[in-house]
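README, section 4: Worked example with a bound small molecule

Sections 1 through 3 covered apo chains. Here we extend the same pipeline to holo records, where the ligand is supplied as SMILES alongside the sequence. The molecule in this example is zinc ion. Nothing else about the input changes; the structure line simply encodes the ligand pose together with the chain.
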Amino acid sequence: MAASSEVVLAVDIGGTKTAAALADRDDVLLRIETAATPASEGPAAVIATVAVLADRLLGTVDLRLSGVGIGTAGVVDAGTGTIVSATDTFADWPRTPVAALVREALGDLLLPGAPVVVQNDVDAHAAGEYRHGAAAGSDSALVVAVGTGVGAGLILAGDAVRGAHHVAGEIAHLPTPGADHLRCPCGRIGHLEAIGSGIGMHAHFRSLGGDAGIRDARGVAGAAASGDPIAQRALTESAAAVGRALAGAATILDPQRIVVTGGVPNIGDAWWRPMRDAFHAEAIDALQSTPILPGTLGDDAPLRGAAASAWRAP
Ligand SMILES: [Zn+2]
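The generated complex, written as structure tokens:
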């Protein structure tokens, strides 16, 4: 590991995996450790996993932490480092005071006064792409992750915009034409996530009468590539819904750049082309030149963003 006199701990708590890294002043990840997230076992087990990873990372170096940055699944009150709400994957995660519990669990691994910053994982991802990835050098960016679900982070003038209810920028629940027959995980009908996410693409495919043997978006993309017309339609319309929602979001936010990341865009041109076409069909003239770029940091984005947030804590 590179010699560095000051490090922060960056943590990405996902539904299945928790990754932790030591990062230097430039948010460069010096060493990464991962473990399964015991999401169903409750908050104490999840926090204990973070502490185990920190021990493992610091075990070989004589350093204490200058700060901790955490990105986690769920809606987060970043001001207090507390979970506001979360999906059922995480038992008892709502109302968990993650910042306080991590501070307690790490104890004297932390330097006195070191900040513990907790935010939503997609917001951490957005901070990474904003500082070091596809949005580096821009003043404002909307970063949208399209995977199993849809998440987004919004940064204006260098600061993450959280909103009055901690959901600013969350285009997942934007009413989106073309999704009127599908139920969103939030329980409502017609939101972007209901058709634009990986699960949504598959649900749309099934609603069109697609092959019941195909179980997920990856399968839909494979069938589309092999010429299945229903799969091609589902893929195109799912991607178009994302482009349409991005045009709506751009109309309100007018970000300098839009960055799109996650597993679904990895489908490639068959997804990007209809997504971009739908954006350009909906966006007003002034927004036509807004760059829509793929993320460049991949899995490192949330960790680098969490590190950046720890170093820049007020
Ligand atoms: Zn919804």
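What to look for in the output: The mean pLDDT is 95. The chain has two domains: 8-121, 134-294.

Section 5 describes how to batch many such records.
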